[in-house]
Description:
By secondary structure, this protein is an alpha/beta fold. It has helices spanning 17-26, 48-64, 75-89, 99-109, 121-126, 128-136, 150-155, 162-172, 194-200, 210-224, 246-255; strands at residues 7-11, 32-36, 69-72, 94-97, 115-119, 142-146, 182-186, 206-209, 238-241, 262-264. The protein folds into two domains: 7-98 and 212-264, Rossmann fold; 100-210, 3-Layer(aba) Sandwich (Rossmann fold).
Amino acid sequence: xDPNQPLGIFDSGLGGxxxxxxxKHLLPNERIIYVGDTAHLPYGDKSAASxxxxxxxxxxxxxxKNCKTILVACNTASARAYSQLAGHxxxxxxxxxxxxxxxxxxxxxxxxxxxxxxxTKNTIDSNTYPYGIKEKIPSAEVxxxxxxxxxxxxxxxxxxxxxxxxIIRSYLxxxxxxxxxxxxxGCTHYPIIKNQIRKFFDFNVEVIDSAAIVARYVKDKLExxxxxxxxxxxxxxxxxxxxxxxxxxxxxxxxxxxxxxxTKIDLWK
Length: 269
Ligand code: DGL
């Protein structure tokens, strides 16, 4: 493996760009190859078998692009497909998910707080966050809830208005989350509404999103493997999608700070 090889990142769609953007800021010398599986979005309520199948196809594409590391920038694929994918990738690249770095961060920083988690139905039903936290702190109190409307709400641009406030309130105001000190945003779309969620809790709850935490984890991992790119090579970052419409182009800008061009690929022939 060589530090100049690109870093592969994929998500069910464009939410993973929040993580890609954090990586770009922290590691500007890395060349990114991103894949958003917009043809199959959302993964939140697909079967585990489908998510594994899609993730393997995308991973094969990223391996063909010679990626040294592949980041599963989707909580749903991390929850439902990570162990099969790890077997599939073997030692051809380093595979990183978005859940483990967040679990490590939270148990270190908030070992005795009541912790809430929101995510897609698949992520929440898999219990990956509570299991991961309780494996490290068996007495931890972890409560979780699926919030399936948040992904389409964000994609449709309902971010700072009555609709988004009503949906956020309806998920977070019940008994489940009473007394939490920390809320994990277990979906790579949710950093877009982080401030509204902090505001909902009157800024009394630590709201944790994966973007910056995962970017730091990726940096440490590359460093420990001597795979951190020391200088920027001339090849461009690439952002691929499995289905393209102008709508995806607009949504892409919302999730990534810089302007990006989406390139359509056909992974499914
Ligand atoms: N970005 C995905 C995640 O982090 C959510 C979107 C979807 O349901 O595909 O779970």
